[in-house]
């Protein structure tokens, strides 16, 4: 049992180390350097950001959940 645990711990350590190295290597180190043809637009305001990343997904979730609940055929109807 002890050898299996050691193998699992070693495997978890190797996977964690490899993932960390890959994340460090792929970090945007040169993100401030502009490329040819790079034309960034103006930034979003706080309201636009909240609307885009919070409100719209919540509304879409509600619409999809409502459609699923409306078309659910497994509800028992009182007789």
Automatic annotation (TrEMBL):
It comes from Actinacidiphila bryophytorum. This is Secreted protein. The lineage of its organism: Bacteria, Bacillati, Actinomycetota, Actinomycetes, Kitasatosporales. It comes from the Bacteria. The chain crosses the membrane at residues 47-70. Keywords: Membrane, Signal, Transmembrane, Transmembrane helix. Residues 1-31 form the signal peptide.
């Amino acid at each position: 049992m002890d050898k299996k645990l050691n193998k699992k711990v070693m495997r978890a350590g190797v996977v964690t180390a490899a993932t960390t190295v890959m994340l460090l290597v792929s970090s945007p180190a040169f993100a401030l350097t502009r490329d040819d043809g790079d034309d960034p637009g103006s930034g979003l305001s706080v309201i636009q950001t909240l609307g885009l990343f919070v409100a719209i997904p919540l509304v879409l979730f509600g619409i999809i959940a409502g459609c699923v609940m409306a078309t659910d055929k497994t509800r028992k109807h009182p007789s």
